[in-house]
Amino acid sequence: MREQATIEVNRLWEALRAVKDPEFPVSVVDLGLIYALRVEGEGRVVVDMTYTSTACGCMEWIEEDIRRCLLQEPGVEEVIINVVWDPPWTKERMNEAARQRFREWGISL
Amino acid sequence: MATDLKAWIAEGNTVESRADMNEEYYRTLRDTLIIVGDTELLSVFALRRALDNAPNLNAKITALAIMQDEIGHAHIAYRLLADLGEDIDALVYEREPRQFKHPYAFDFAYDGSWAELAVFNAFFDRAGFVLLGDAYANTSYGPWKRALAKVDKEELFHVRNGEVWMRTLMENEETRADVQRAVDWMFPLAVEFFGLPDNLKTRNTQLEYRIKGSTNDQLRQKWLREVVPFCESIGVRVPAHYDEEKGEYVLDYPFPCHFDEEAKQWRFDQPCTWDDVIARFKRRGPKCEEFVAELRKGYREIARLREAG
């Protein structure tokens, strides 16, 4: 029987920084799209996330990126993504790193 | 205007308006921006037919967003030309279709399969990203450099859409062959995007005035460095490989060679000359007139209604 690697939630957050919004290369973490990350049972990671818009055409794309990214982490066997619309996403959810990137690109916030 | 404009630019100065330019700079910049505007605009008509093959609604929405971006990029290029005093209505609505300067690759309808849209984004938008990225980093024309901040991000979005879809389609037994078929005819078209090899260019005012920063072959290499490893990583065959001795990517077919437009097949056993290629570019591809007519349909219709009073 294989030793089950302990999944560290902090590492998962860190790993997700590599997943960028398709339109603007800012991480989904900095954008504030990830509401919660938790480990449930053996090798199962649950992600609660939202989108900037209910009409976002890139949902599958972003979810696929998140899944691929987390499955590369030691011990992760399964990724479950819950899309939550409450609370709704607003610009206030972006952190300073995201704001800084948008400012550099001349995009008003 | 500086007496020696090239030296003034080489010192790192930025050209901001007509007053800073000599005639040669102006003509070179104008010709470059016309190519850029036409390329962005006509890409939409080449891609539009692909929408019917979208596997789901979100894929279609994303593709439409990309086309909308491209029209925005064309608008930026034409706006820069308008600021230089060019008549944009004449350029867009009056020019002979064959006078448009978009790449020959955009004179085809990419309606064969959804894979063609994916490869279009991954190869042609990547070429645009390389070319415009170089301008963004190096151009001496300030207004263009500033406008490219937005364009650069959006082109990357298009490239990523193409790569995500290529990877997804390669993971599916039913669509793998579509990807390879699209790559087989589109890869050499993208390689041609970068124009004449450096050794055939007699002079290069674009580089002398730093309208752009890198040569055709340098930009082609940059594209190959991105595209070839990506294709290999997802199991797509491309006719190019890395040559350890030369320290660069080399093509596995004679460049240039004959292209059978009807069959959409490259004849790797039939090398040709660059004069032949330029002649093909000038003849334009099969859909050129149709796409330009489509672009003008609304404009003509409005004009007709106005005349009818």
TrEMBL record, chain A:
Q: Where would I find the MIP18 family-like domain in this sequence?
A: 12-79
Protein name from the UniProt record: MIP18 family-like domain-containing protein
TrEMBL record, chain B:
One GO BP annotation of this record: phenylacetate catabolic process
List GO terms (cellular component aspect): cytosol
Span of the signal peptide: none
Instruction: Read off the SUPFAM superfamilies from this record.
Output: Ferritin-like
Q: Which InterPro entries match?
A: Aromatic_CoA_ox/epox, Ferritin-like, Ferritin-like_SF, PaaA_PaaC
Highest rank taxon of the organism:
Bacteria
| Name under which the protein is recorded | Phenylacetate-CoA oxygenase subunit PaaA
- What does UniProt list as this organism's lineage? Bacteria, Bacillati, Bacillota, Bacilli, Bacillales
Encoding gene, per UniProt annotation: paaA
